[in-house]
Every structure is written in C-alpha cells, then in structure tokens.
Amino acid sequence: MLAITSLVSIVLMSLHLSDDMVRGFSQPGLDNFIAIVVLVVWLYGTLMVRERLAGLITMLLGAVCAIAMPILHLRGASIVEVVRSSGGLFFYWTVFTLGVTGGFSLILAAHGLWSLRRGKRVTERETKILLCGCLVLQRKRRAKRRPSSQHRRRQMFVGRRRCR
Known about the structure:
This protein is mainly α. Helix content is 63%, strand content 7%.
C-alpha cells in the first residue's frame, strides 16, 4: 500500500512541477535537474528498496515533500488568481491530492518504520488483496522453509470468499 501511494505521489509531483513551470512559478533550466534527481531517488527507494530502512526513510521524506506542496502554494496571495485561471482546477487538484497522498504515505511509512523497529518485516503486515473482485484480508507469513508450489497455491487462496 505504501509503494502504491508513493508512486501516485511521484506522478502527481512530476505533474505539479511541470504545471509550476508552465505557470511561471519556477523557471525552466538547470535548477530543475535537482527535482529530477529527487524524483529518481524517491522512485528508486519506492521500487527497489521499499522493505528496507533506506526505502522507508526515502518514502517518508518523499511524503514530507508531498505534504509541503499544499502548505507552500496555498499560503500565497495569488492562489485565487491561479485557481480561477485556465487550468486552475488541475493545479488545485494536484496540490490537494498531493497533500492527501503525502499524508497517507507519511502514516504508512511511520508504521513501517515502527514495525521495523519492533523487529517485524514490513511484508508481514496485513495487506489488502483484490481477488476475484472481492476485497480480502490476507496475512503474509514468513516461512522458515521454502514451501512446495502446491502449498503456496493453497496459501494464496486462504480466506477467499466466493464472488457472486
């Protein structure tokens, strides 16, 4: 769930930064490579090391950046003009949604760090799986030995409800 919200935040952040350049809030130039590097590091932490401490810290810092966007933009006096201008709905929607996904990512990353501190792996948390159109809770268990493929298939359908 944390990886999904971080990916959504990354996409929204890139759209928002592009919209900032179009509207003249930031100037296109070499300074934007800093934003590219930040987004690449955030993406790497989300996709490659999400279960490790470095990945959780990267996603936590990304969530803080996502939360900062509404705080930075909605305090300005020109926000009313921007929202009323052409494309203002898209601008406001990206800022608002960045705050929501960033806040949710912050909660999930803090929970992941707390779970790591207690000695649990992040993958042991209960996750929601969409299976046959039904939302099912399934607990991922860390096996001490590698189970057979038949056992893994049987474990995948534990707790499944029939869809009607």
